[in-house]
Structure to design on (138 residues):
């Protein structure tokens, strides 16, 4: 096997170009999370809370039931962002420190494909029983 620096200049440039064309798209995905999410009946999936930066969720409801998506801001409270019907897609942005709450109040399991980007390094993830307020049921 030839040393990279022993290759002729034209081959060296092509090889470096090939390496960069393969590695740069992979580096852009470093802060991206892809998930096929299942939410049991009567549960809610909690994503984030307390992270220093904002994040974005691209969601596709691939299941048989609607899923409600809410935001819990860092300062308290909760508000509805949208409800994704089966087959529907949405792009949602969440502020720094906020929590995304994906609710499944139906009697059937919900199913979503998610792509989460932005500040994903410290995103907490957990499940809770559904409550009308979007708060954890103790």
């Amino acid at each position: 096997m030839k040393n990279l620096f022993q290759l002729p200049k034209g081959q060296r440039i092509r090889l470096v170009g090939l390496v960069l064309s393969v590695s740069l798209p992979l580096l852009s995905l470093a802060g991206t999370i892809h998930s096929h999410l299942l939410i049991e009946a009567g549960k809610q999936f909690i994503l984030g809370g307390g992270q220093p930066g904002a994040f974005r969720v691209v969601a596709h409801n691939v299941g048989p039931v609607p899923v409600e998506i809410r935001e819990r801001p860092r300062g308290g409270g909760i508000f509805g962002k949208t409800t994704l019907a089966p087959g529907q897609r949405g792009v949602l942005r969440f502020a720094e420190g906020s929590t995304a709450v994906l609710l499944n109040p139906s009697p059937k399991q919900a199913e979503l494909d998610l792509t989460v980007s932005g500040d994903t390094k410290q995103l907490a993830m957990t499940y809770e029983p559904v409550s009308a307020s979007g708060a954890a049921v103790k």
Notes: The first helix runs from residue 9 to 28. The beta strands are 33-39, 43-48, 55-61, 67-72, 79-84, 89-94, 99-104, 110-118, 125-129. The radius of gyration is 20 Å.
